[in-house]
Write a structure and sequence with these properties.
heterodimer, A: 598 residues, alpha+beta, seven-stranded mixed sheet, two-stranded antiparallel ribbon, 19 helices, globular, B: 591 residues, Acyl-CoA dehydrogenase (chain A), oxidoreductase (chain A), Diverse_Acyl-CoA_DH (chain A), FAD (chain A)
C-alpha cells in the first residue's frame, strides 16, 4: 500500500473553481476568508494527515483499542498525534470565536476532514464526534452550559460523544429506555445503557462530554418523549477544570470488523449527573438541527475510502506486471505489461476515480450549502439552501458511502490475492468502509428519509427545486459542442427523475408500503443522477479553463475524460434501479414471514 | 447470531423435482447405483454432519486463526478432531474414483454437499476442497504407480493435497513463473522455488501432505508452454507406503488475511525437494486445466454457501428484531415495535438474497449435471454438448456466484444494522470469508475474460448460440405451463437481450481488440442474470405443480426475481454497448 497523498489539486479544483468559494464567501460577507487562506490550510492539513495520521492507520488496525477495567487505551501513537492536532489548533477551526474558535465556515474545513479521514478514519472519529456535541451545545445550550463546556471542547482538550443507541433500539429511537430523574438542584440523574458509542471512553482527552438521549418521568411515549442531556465524565469544577468523577463508565468495547482503533463503547449511566439541554421532550428535534451536518461527516467517509482504494489500486496497477496488452506489448523489455493496460483494470480504476471525485464534489457542495444555511443574509436564500441540503444530505450520506464501499472493493480486487492480505492495507480499507453504510442512519433509513420525508412530504417540491437547477445548467451548456454528449444524458435522466418520482407518488397513495419498497433503489437512482450532474458541471468548468488557456491541460482533459466514462459506463446503472422500482409490490409484501426459509 | 440449517427441502426440490437428476444418473453406468433414495439419505447425513460438527467451529476458528511456529502450522482448536471424524465417516472419499477407494458420487450431488460445507465452515471446507483438486488431477494424469501410492491415502483422509501455482511475482500470469525442476538419474526431479498462497500447504490434521507443483524443466520453452506438473510429498513414502523421510519442502510463513482465518494460507519453500512428474513434460498447465472446471465451480459454491448462511441468519434476525412500525399499521400489537421483516426495504434485502441463492443453487446443480455428462456419458453427442455447456457456464458460475455471494453477505450484514459490524454476531465474518472467493481460482476479472474472450468471441459465439437454443427450446416446450404465464414475456425479453448484446459484443470486438476485456465483467453479469431467469422459470414451472407453502413461496420469490432483479440486465447491456472508448482514452499518467 502506497502512502496516502492528499489530492490537493482536485480539492482546489472543486473548492475554488467549480464551487467558486471566493465568490461564495464574498456573498456571505466573510471578508477574511478566501482561497488564499484556504490553500494554506489545505497544505498544512495535507502535511499533518500524511505525516502524522497515515503512518498510524495500519498499526492502529492491527493493535486496536484496549479495554481494562473501564479504562480504554488507544493504539500506540494515537494520543500523541491527537496532542499535536490540538496544539496545531485544528479542532477550533469551525468553533465559535466567543469560545476560542476560529469561526470559519464548514466549507473551509471540509477538505481537512476528508484528508484526516482518508489518512486514518479510526483516528479522525475522535475529533469528529466532538462536532456533534459542540453543535448541540452551541445551538441549544444555556450561556452557563456554553461557558462550562465550549472552550475546552473547542480547543480539543475535551472531546464529546453522542449517546443515542441502546441494545434494543437503533433506527427506532422511540422505544429507548434510558431514564432521567430530576434532582432538587435542577440537575438530573441519568440511568441506562447506551451502546455503539464512538469515543465513549479513551485516553486522549482529560474529559469526555456525553450528549445523552433519555426520558423524563411521565414523558409521552415514542419519539415525542425524548429529552437531551449533557453528562460529563468528570463534573466541572467551576473554574474550567475537571472535578469529581461522574457515574458514567465504559462497560466494554466492541470487537468489530473494522475501524478497530476507534473505541466503540458500551456506556453505563448509573445515576449519573446530567443537565437538560434544550426543551423537555424535544430532544430529537434538537438532534435534527445538526443531523444534516453529522450525516455529511459520514458521507466524507465514502469519499475517503474511494480515494484510498483508488490511490492504492492505481499505484499497484502501474507497477504490477502481468500479461500483455491486447493491442500489443506496452512494456516490451519487461516480462509482461503493467496491469493498467488491461481494460478491466481501467474499468475498476476509473469507477473508483469517478466515485471519489464525484463524491467529493457532492460532499463539498453540501458543505457550501451548509454555510448558506447558517450564514446567508437573505431569508429566502437561507431557506432555499436549507431545503436543498435537506434533499442532498441523505443522498450524499447513503450513496457516497455505498459507492465508497464498492470502490474500496475494487482496490482489493486490483491487487488480486495480495488484496486479501492484511500487510498490503487494501482489505482494511474495505473493513473500515463497511461501517459507513450502517451507522449515522443505515442506507435504508437514509433512503426512507429521502423518499418519504424529503420528497413525498414536500409533494416533490424539494426535488423540483433541485431538478430545476440541473435543468438550467443543461440549458446553459447544451449548445457547447464539446460538452453535448455529457449534457444530453444529464438532461434526459433529470427529466426522468421527476417522472419516476411522480409515478412512485401515485402508487404510494394506494399502498403505503410502496415507499419503503422503492426507497433504496430510488436513493441509488437519485445518487447516480446527482453525480452525473456534478460530473457534467466539473467537465464544463474544465472545458471553460481549457478554452481560456488556463494551463494545466492534462488535469482538465482527464476530468473531461472521466466524465465521459461516468456517463457511458456508470450512469446506465440508474436504469436498473428504475426497473426494480417499477417491479410489482406484491412479490415483495405477500410472502408470509414464516415462509422465508424452509 | 448466525444460524444455519442445511436447506434440504430446496436442495431436493432442485435436484429431484426440477432436474430429475436421478434419471441422468441411471442413464450412465458410472453413476447407475446412485438412486434418489441414496442421494436423499446422503444429503440428510451431510446436513447433520455440517450442522453438528463443522458449524460450531466456525466463529471460534475465525477468532483463533491458524498458528505458525518454526515451520509448523497448528489449526484452530477442534479442527483436527473434526477432520478425523469427517474422514472416518468417509466424507473425504465422496467424489473419489472407486478403483482407489473413492465413493464415486456424481458432481451434481457433490455441489450440494460442498454448498453445505461452505455455509457451515468455509475455512474448514477448503482443506478437503484442495485435496479434491489434487486427486482429480492425479486420477486424470498421473502414472499408475503414483495413483496406487497416493490416491487411497488421499481418499481416506489420512493425507491431504495442495495445488502450488502462484509465485510472489505471478498469479494470473503463470507464464512468467520461476520454480525449477531438475531431473535426477532415477527418473525423479529436484524442485526448487517459492510458492505463495498455498491453501493447506502445511497443517496438523493429516500424516502427510501431497503438493502438486508447477515448475519449469531446464530448457523449457518460455511462457505458459514451458510449465510441467510435479507431485511433491511432504514426507517421501517408505517401502510400505507410509510417510518416511522428510522432503525438502517447508512452510516459510502463513499469511495474515482478511478472512478464512481458520484456513492456513502458506508460503511454501521448495529446496531441492524430490518430486515426480505428472503427465507429459511442458504440459503442466493443460493437466491442471482438466480439473479447472471442477475447482472453479467449487470455489463459486463458496460464494453460494456463504450467501445461504448469511440469508438464513438475516431472515431469523428480521423476524425477531423489533424496530419501527409497519407502514400499513401495527402488526405486533403486544410488542413495543414490529419485527423488521414487516418493512418493505428489509423484505427487499431478504428476497434479493434468497432469489440469488436459490437461482445459484439451481445453476450449480445444472452445471454439476453437465459435468457428470461430460465425464460419464457414453453418448458422444450428449457428452460433447455437455462439455460445451460446461466450458461456457463455468466461468459464469465461479464469478457470478461469488460476486452475488459477496453482495448477499453484505446485505445480510446490513439487515443486522450496527450489530452486523460486531464480530460476535458472526455476520461480518461471512463478508470477510467470501471476499477471497472473488479473487482466487482465477479472479472474477479473469473469469469474465475467459467467458467473453475464449468462450464467446474466439469461437464466434458458437457456445452461446447453442445455449440460447436450449433456452428457447425450453420456453417453447413449456409455453403452456402454469407458473410461466406471469413471467414469460420478461423471460423472452431477457433471452433476446442476451442474444442482441452478444451480437453487439462480437461486432465491436471485430473492430477493437479492447472491446472484449472492456465489457467482460458486465457481459458475465448480464449472462448470469439471464441464466438465473431461465432457471427461476424452470423452478416456477415445477413449483406450480405443488399445492403447498413451499411451492407458493417459490412462485413469489421467482416473481420477485423477474420484477426486481432482472431489470439490472438492461442496464448492463447499455454499459456494454457503450464500448471501450471511454475506458481506454485516459493516458496512464493522467489517472
Amino acid at each position: 500500500m502506497p502512502e496516502y497523498k492528499a489530492p490537493l489539486r482536485d480539492m482546489r479544483f472543486v473548492l475554488n473553481e467549480v464551487l467558486d468559494l471566493d465568490g461564495h464567501y464574498a456573498k456571505l460577507g466573510l471578508e477574511e476568508v478566501n482561497s488564499e487562506l484556504l490553500n494554506a490550510f489545505l497544505d498544512e492539513g495535507a502535511k499533518f494527515s500524511e505525516n502524522e495520521l497515515a503512518p498510524l492507520n495500519r498499526s492502529g488496525d492491527e493493535e486496536g483499542c484496549h479495554f481494562e477495567d473501564g479504562v480504554v487505551t488507544t493504539p500506540k501513537g494515537f494520543k500523541e498525534a491527537y496532542a499535536k492536532y490540538v496544539e496545531g489548533g485544528w479542532p477550533a477551526i469551525n468553533g465559535d470565536p466567543e469560545f476560542g474558535g476560529q469561526g470559519l465556515p464548514g466549507s473551509a474545513s471540509i477538505a481537512i476532514s476528508e484528508m484526516t479521514g482518508t489518512a486514518n478514519w479510526s483516528w479522525s472519529m475522535y475529533p469528529g464526534l466532538s462536532h456533534g456535541a459542540v453543535a448541540t451545545i452551541e445551538e441549544h445550550g444555556t450561556d452557563q452550559q456554553k461557558n462550562a463546556y465550549l472552550p475546552k471542547l473547542t480547543s480539543g482538550e475535551w472531546t464529546g460523544t453522542m449517546c443515542l443507541t441502546e441494545p434494543h433500539c437503533g433506527s427506532d429511537l422511540g422505544i429507548l429506555k434510558t431514564k432521567a430523574e430530576p434532582n432538587a438542584d435542577g440537575s438530573y440523574s441519568i440511568t441506562g445503557t447506551k451502546i455503539f458509542i464512538s469515543a465513549g471512553e479513551h485516553d486522549m482527552a482529560e474529559n469526555i462530554v456525553h450528549i445523552v438521549l433519555a426520558r423524563l418521568p411521565d414523558a409521552p411515549k415514542g419519539t415525542k418523549g425524548i429529552s437531551l442531556f449533557i453528562v460529563p465524565k468528570f463534573l466541572t469544577d467551576g473554574n474550567g477544570g475537571v472535578g469529581e468523577r461522574n457515574a458514567v463508565a465504559c462497560g466494554s468495547i466492541e470487537h468489530k470488523m473494522g475501524i478497530k482503533a476507534s473505541a466503540t463503547c458500551v456506556m453505563n449511566f448509573d445515576g449519573a449527573t446530567g443537565y437538560l439541554i434544550g426543551p423537555e421532550n424535544k430532544g430529537l428535534n434538537c438532534m435534527f438541527t445538526f443531523m444534516n451536518f453529522a450525516r455529511l461527516g459520514t458521507a466524507i467517509q465514502g469519499v475517503a475510502h474511494a480515494e484510498l482504494g483508488f490511490q492504492g489500486g492505481l499505484a499497484y496497477a502501474r507497477e504490477r506486471l502481468a500479461m500483455r496488452s491486447l493491442s500489443g506489448p506496452k512494456n516490451p523489455d519487461g516480462p509482461a505489461d503493467p496491469i493498467i493496460v488491461h481494460p478491466d483494470v481501467r474499468r475498476m480504476l476509473l469507477t473508483s476515480k469517478a466515485f471519489a471525485e464525484g463524491g467529493r464534489a457532492l460532499v463539498y457542495l453540501c458543505a457550501q450549502l451548509g454555510d448558506q444555511v447558517k450564514l446567508a443574509r437573505d431569508d429566502a436564500e437561507r431557506e432555499q439552501a436549507h431545503d436543498l441540503m435537506a434533499l442532498l444530505t441523505p443522498i450524499a450520506k447513503a450513496f457516497v458511502t455505498e459507492v465508497g464501499l464498492e470502490a474500496a472493493n475494487h482496490g482489493v480486487q486490483i491487487y488480486g490475492g495480495h488484496g486479501f492480505i492484511r500487510e498490503w492495507g487494501m482489505e482494511q480499507n474495505v473493513r473500515d468502509a463497511r461501517i459507513s453504510t450502517l451507522y449515522e442512519g443505515t442506507t435504508g433509513i437514509q433512503a426512507l428519509d429521502l423518499l418519504g420525508r424529503k420528497v413525498m412530504m414536500t409533494q416533490g417540491q424539494a426535488l423540483r427545486n433541485f431538478t430545476k437547477i440541473v435543468h438550467k445548467f443543461c440549458e446553459a451548456h447544451g449548445d457547447n459542442g464539446e460538452l453535448k454528449e455529457l449534457i444530453e444524458p444529464v438532461a434526459r435522466y433529470n427529466r426522468e427523475w421527476g417522472e419516476l418520482t411522480q409515478a412512485i407518488a401515485m402508487q404510494a397513495m394506494q399502498n403505503p408500503d410502496y415507499v419503503g419498497a422503492a426507497s433504496v433503489d430510488y436513493l441509488m437512482y437519485s445518487g447516480y443522477v446527482t453525480l452525473a450532474y456534478l460530473w457534467a458541471r466539473m467537465a464544463a468548468k474544465a472545458q471553460e479553463q481549457l478554452d481560456a488557456g488556463a494551463g494545466d491541460e492534462d488535469f482538465y482533459k482527464a476530468k473531461i475524460s472521466t466524465a465521459r466514462f461516468y456517463m457511458k459506463r456508470i450512469l446506465p446503472r440508474a436504469a436498473g434501479h428504475k426497473g426494480a422500482i417499477e417491479g410489482g409490490l406484491d412479490c415483495l409484501m405477500e410472502l408470509d414471514q414464516e415462509h422465508f426459509a424452509f | 447470531m448466525a444460524t444455519y440449517k442445511a436447506p434440504l427441502e430446496d436442495m431436493r426440490f432442485i435436484l429431484n423435482d426440477v432436474f430429475q437428476a436421478d434419471r441422468l444418473w441411471a442413464s450412465m453406468p458410472a453413476t447407475a447405483e446412485v438412486t434418489r433414495d441414496l442421494s436423499d439419505a446422503i444429503l440428510d447425513e451431510a446436513g447433520k454432519m455440517v450442522e453438528n460438527l463443522l458449524f460450531p467451529l466456525n466463529r471460534d476458528g475465525d477468532e483463533e486463526g491458524c498458528h505458525f511456529d518454526d515451520g509448523q502450522v497448528t489449526t484452530p482448536k477442534g479442527f483436527k478432531e473434526a477432520f478425523k471424524t469427517y474422514a472416518e465417516n468417509g466424507w473425504t472419499a465422496f467424489s473419489g474414483n472407486p478403483e482407489f477407494g473413492g465413493q464415486g458420487m456424481p458432481k451434481s450431488l457433490a455441489v450440494l454437499f460442498e454448498e453445505m460445507m461452505h455455509s457451515a465452515n468455509s475455512s474448514f471446507a477448503l482443506y478437503p476442497a484442495l485435496t479434491n483438486g489434487a486427486t482429480l488431477c492425479l486420477d486424470a494424469h498421473a502414472s499408475e504407480d503414483l495413483k496406487q501410492a497416493y490416491l487411497p491415502k488421499l481418499y481416506s483422509g489420512e493425507w491431504s493435497g495442495t495445488m502450488c501455482l502462484t509465485e510472489p511475482h505471478c498469479g494470473t500470469d503463470l507464464g512468467i513463473m520461476r520454480s525449477k525442476a531438475v531431473p535426477n538419474d532415477d527418473g525423479s526431479f529436484n524442485i526448487s522455488g517459492t510458492k505463495i498462497f498455498i491453501t493447506g500447504g502445511e497443517h496438523d490434521m493429516v500424516d502427510n501432505i501431497i503438493h502438486l507443483v508447477l515448475a519449469k524443466l531446464p530448457d523449457a520453452p518460455a511462457g505458459s508452454k514451458g510449465i510441467s506438473l510435479f507431485l511433491v510429498p511432504k514426507f517421501l513414502p517408505d517401502a510400505d507406503g507410509n510417510p518416511g523421510e522428510r522432503n525438502g519442502v517447508a512452510a516459510g510463513s502463513i499469511e495474515h488475511k482478511m478472512g478464512i482465518k481458520g484456513s492456513a494460507t502458506c508460503v511454501m519453500n521448495f529446496d531441492d525437494a524430490k518430486g515426480w512428474i505428472i503427465g507429459e513434460p511442458n504440459q503442466g498447465l493443460a493437466a491442471m486445466f482438466t480439473m479447472m472446471n471442477y475447482e472453479r465451480l467449487s470455489i463459486g459454491i463458496q460464494g453460494l454457501g456463504l450467501g445461504e448462511v448469511s440469508y438464513q441468519s438475516a431472515a431469523d434476525y428480521a423476524r425477531e428484531r423489533l424496530q419501527g412500525r409497519a407502514a400499513t399499521g401495527v402488526q405486533n400489537e403486544g410488542g413495543n415495535a414490529d419485527p423488521i421483516i414487516v418493512h418493505g426495504d428489509v423484505r427487499r434485502m431478504l428476497l434479493t438474497m434468497r432469489a440469488l441463492n436459490e437461482g445459484g443453487r439451481a445453476l450449480s446443480t445444472y452445471v454439476g449435471m453437465e459435468l457428470d455428462k461430460a465425464k460419464f456419458s457414453e453418448n458422444d453427442a450428449e457428452q460433447k454438448a455437455a462439455q460445451d455447456r460446461v466450458a461456457l457456464l463455468t466461468p459464469i458460475a465461479k464469478a457470478f456466484f461469488t460476486d452475488r455471494g459477496f453482495d448477499t453477505t453484505v446485505i445480510g450484514q446490513q439487515v443486522f444494522g450496527g450489530h452486523g459490524y460486531v464480530r460476535e454476531w458472526g455476520m461480518e465474518q461471512f463478508v470477510r470469508d467470501c471476499r477471497i472467493s472473488q479473487i482466487y481460482e482465477g479472479t472474477n476479472g479473469i473469469q469474465a475474460l475467459d467467458l467473453a474472450g475464449r468462450k464467446v468471441t474466439r469461437n464466434g459465439g458458437k457456445y452461446v448460440d447453442a445455449f440460447l437454443a436450449d433456452l428457447r427450446g425450453w420456453i417453447d416446450d413449456n409455453a403452456n405451463e402454469q407458473g410461466l404465464d406471469s413471467i414469460r414475456e420478461r423471460l423472452v425479453a431477457a433471452v433476446d437481450l442476451l442474444e442482441s448484446t452478444t451480437a453487439e459484443l462480437l461486432r465491436q470486438a471485430g473492430d477493437n481488440p479492447d472491446m472484449v476485456n472492456a465489457s467482460a465483467v458486465e457481459y458475465l453479469d448480464l449472462f448470469g442474470y439471464v441464466t438465473y431467469a431461465w432457471l427461476w422459470a424452470r423452478m416456477m414451472v415445477t413449483a406450480a405443480q405443488r399445492d403447498d407453502d413451499f411451492g407458493r413461496a417459490k412462485l413469489t420469490v421467482g416473481r420477485f426475481y423477474f420484477e426486481r432483479l432482472l431489470p439490472r440486465a438492461g442496464a448492463l447491456a447499455e454499459q456494454i454497448k457503450a464500448g471501450p472508448a471511454t475506458m481506454m482514452s485516459l493516458e496512464q499518467d493522467l489517472f
